[in-house]
């Protein structure tokens, strides 16, 4: 029996299930160049994200997978309406979550930022060092996931360059020291020095110098010196005027803990501190020497050790007892007008020659300067010389200063004179021996006299510039503020000032560094007609670098004028700094939109150890009695040579005095440091 089998063949067809396409992320393959202190920087603001099979994305991870530095590297993201970010410093992973469109995720990814928060970043130092730039580069890996659970990734690079940070120097501020006259005993002042460098990282290769670089006594005077530095510092070069050494900032601070400046003579001195890191960035992975980028920091401290001076600015004041040399003055033009603080009045004496006045003060005061302001007409009557003397009893007078008075620029113009004096008197006598044209003149006249307890800082040689409110116009020029002239058009005038706006004038005195003691505001020659134009307030600030300014006085409110060109005096107290620049801030006019001021004068202590005076046939120089200086003369400044003057100066009270004859040939003298 046969058995039959039937074979059934079933053909099975291959079935291919659809596979979701991966998201595609294209990132910039050119490395992002990041430099220390750049802050937060977008990693790739042009990346693109596409997904052929999905409409929405559900999340992204951004991770620094190569050279990640915890506590330095930070990935950042600002949350959007649909996407939330979270960065985990321990792993260097930024996770973005939230279901939203591909385009929304693309926009979000373009805002992801990188930041290195360290001042010692793990990176390269020298521009152009391609090998190290790539060696220390961060690798950023992006992984994106869509709503089909498909994912895609991409990577790009961030190079990180460290920057050599400059050393930081801290010290005491500049100060004025009023310990009295030259004592002959050294007075020490600790400099309070400390050094730091955020990226030195233990480097001992920084150079430090502390030196006395400014000395009003002359470089040959040994009074100012440095002391208190350890004598056993290896490699240090130490002298009385300069110390140099090489070490770390921390060790430099320790060495200088006891360092002080000292002087036993009055003067103005500058100590300069320099720190040079020689290019050490100290950054990991190893301290690197970026010799192309060394950083040097310089700081100066100015010491003004001054003889004690009492009084404000002008020691005279309306109401003081005044005695004229004679009663030969017209009605209303007596000697009291010379100290009434008004340029609109004058003292006139028909005796003409050797006329003057004696002023008695309540207290004894040291006078070190003189202001003369010419009258409003008849320049032939202007004084051309003066003799100032002081007295304790009104009978016996000691000459303090005598000098020729150069021709006044014009009527109602200012001249000031400074001179050495340390003796206080209660009584001062001022005599004018001569006038400009004794033949044509019928009298001597002077508008105002000031006996100054301080030197004048300002002059017509000062550099001034202004910052006007928007839309305001300078009518006559800012130089009018210090031009020494008080005529009708010689005033600082600004028009079209918006309501409430200040006008700012910056001033750099030609006299150099100074300590401000006070100032004068002189009104315009037509202030009585336009009292509303005066500033509603005035503030003065000082700066040593023309950038950072310190307010030196409370805001003052000028009084309404009782006369044209009225002088108002203000004293500055309570600070000890020295400045080379001043900022004058004029408040808006009292009313209206036009501001005017006749003149601003600053007073204080100026580094000016040489005084001069002249008569018709004699020239006198006085200077502090220090070694190493000689007087020289020449006939002109363009040809010929300086010739030494062989006359021996007279020494009196620490001051050298030398009087020389004037003739038609010799016109120029100088004090030359040998």
Task: Considering the chains and any ligands shown, give keywords for the structure.
single chain; 674 residues; mainly beta; Immunoglobulin-like; Jelly Rolls; 5 domains; six-stranded mixed beta sheet; 3 helices; 3% helix
How is this fold's topology laid out?
Blueprint: E1 24-26, E2 32-35, E3 41-42, E4 48-50, E5 56-66, E6 73-76, E7 84-88, E8 93-101, H1 102-109, E9 113-116, H2 130-135, E10 138-146, E11 151-161, E12 168-170, E13 175-177, E14 187-190, E15 194-196, E16 206-215, E17 225-227, E18 237-238, E19 242-247, H3 249-255, E20 260-263, E21 267-276, E22 296-305, E23 321-324, E24 347-349, E25 355-366, E26 369-373, E27 385-391, E28 397-404, E29 414-418, E30 424-432, E31 444-446, E32 448-452, E33 455-456, E34 463-467, E35 473-474, E36 492-495, E37 503-508, E38 514-522, E39 538-543, E40 550-551, E41 567-571, E42 581-586, E43 595-597, E44 599-606, E45 610-614, E46 618-624, E47 629-634, E48 643-644, E49 650-652, E50 655-661, E51 668-673
């Amino acid at each position: 029996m046969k058995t039959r089998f039937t074979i059934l063949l079933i053909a099975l067809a291959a079935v291919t299930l659809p596979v979701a396409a991966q998201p595609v992320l294209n990132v910039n393959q050119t490395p992002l160049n990041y430099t220390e202190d750049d802050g937060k920087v977008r990693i790739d603001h042009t990346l693109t994200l596409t997904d052929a099979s999905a409409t929405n994305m559900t999340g992204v991870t951004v991770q620094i997978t190569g050279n990640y530095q915890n506590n330095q590297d930070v990935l950042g993201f600002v949350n959007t309406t649909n996407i939330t970010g979270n960065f985990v410093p321990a792993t260097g992973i930024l996770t973005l979550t939230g279901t939203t469109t591909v385009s929304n995720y693309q926009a979000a990814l373009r805002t992801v930022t990188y930041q290195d928060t360290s001042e010692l970043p793990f990176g390269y130092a020298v521009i152009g060092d391609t090998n190290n730039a790539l060696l220390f580069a961060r690798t950023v890996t992006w992984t994106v996931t869509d709503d089909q659970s498909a994912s895609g990734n991409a990577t790009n690079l961030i190079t990180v360059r460290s920057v050599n940070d400059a050393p930081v120097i801290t010290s005491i501020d500049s100060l004025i020291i009023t310990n009295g006259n030259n004592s002959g005993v050294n007075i020490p002042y600790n400099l309070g020095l400390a050094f730091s460098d955020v990226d030195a990282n233990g480097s001992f290769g920084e150079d430090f110098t502390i030196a006395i670089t400014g000395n009003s006594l002359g470089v040959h005077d040994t009074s100012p010196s440095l002391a208190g530095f350890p004598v056993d510092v290896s490699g240090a070069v130490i002298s009385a005027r300069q110390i140099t050494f090489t070490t770390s900032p921390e060790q430099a601070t320790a060495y200088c803990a006891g360092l002080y400046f000292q002087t036993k003579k009055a003067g103005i001195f500058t100590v300069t501190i320099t720190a040079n890191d020689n290019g050490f960035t100290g950054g990991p992975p190893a301290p690197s020497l970026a010799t192309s980028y060394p950083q040097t920091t310089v700081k100066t401290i100015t010491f003004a050790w001054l003889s004690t001076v009492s009084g404000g600015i002008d020691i005279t004041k309306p109401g003081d007892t005044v005695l004229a040399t004679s009663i030969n003055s017209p009605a209303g033009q007596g000697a009291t007008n010379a100290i009434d603080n008004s340029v609109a009045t004058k003292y006139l004496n028909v005796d003409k020659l050797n006329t003057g006045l004696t002023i008695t003060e309540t207290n004894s005061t040291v006078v070190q300067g003189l202001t003369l302001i010419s009258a409003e007409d008849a320049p032939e009557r202007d004084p051309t010389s003066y003799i100032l003397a002081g007295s304790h009893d009104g009978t016996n007078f000691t000459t303090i200063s005598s000098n020729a008075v150069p021709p006044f620029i014009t009527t109602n113009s200012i001249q000031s004179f400074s001179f050495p004096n340390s003796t206080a008197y209660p009584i001062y006598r001022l005599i004018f021996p001569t006038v400009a044209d004794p033949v044509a003149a019928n009298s001597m006249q002077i508008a105002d006299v000031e006996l100054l307890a301080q030197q004048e800082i300002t002059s017509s040689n000062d550099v001034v510039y202004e910052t006007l409110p928007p839309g305001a116009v300078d009518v006559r020029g800012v130089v009018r503020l210090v031009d020494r002239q008080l005529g009708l058009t010689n005033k600082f005038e600004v028009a079209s000032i918006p309501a409430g706006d200040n006008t700012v004038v910056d001033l750099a005195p030609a006299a150099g560094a100074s300590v401000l003691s006070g100032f004068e505001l002189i009104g315009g020659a037509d202030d009585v007609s336009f009292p509303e134009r005066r500033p509603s307030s005035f503030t003065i600030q000082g700066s040593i670098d023309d950038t950072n300014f310190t307010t030196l006085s409370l805001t003052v409110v000028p009084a309404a004028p009782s006369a044209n060109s009225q002088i108002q005096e203000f004293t500055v107290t309570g600070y000890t700094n020295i400045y080379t620049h001043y900022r004058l801030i004029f408040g808006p006019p009292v009313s209206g939109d036009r501001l005017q001021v006749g003149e601003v004068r600053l007073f204080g202590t100026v580094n000016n150890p040489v005084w001069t005076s002249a008569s018709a046939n004699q020239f006198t120089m006085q200077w502090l009695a220090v070694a190493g200086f000689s007087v020289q003369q020449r006939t002109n400044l363009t040809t010929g040579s300086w010739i030494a003057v062989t006359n021996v100066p007279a020494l009196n009270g620490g001051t050298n005095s030398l009087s020389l004859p004037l003739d038609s040939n010799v016109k120029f003298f100088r004090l030359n440091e040998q």
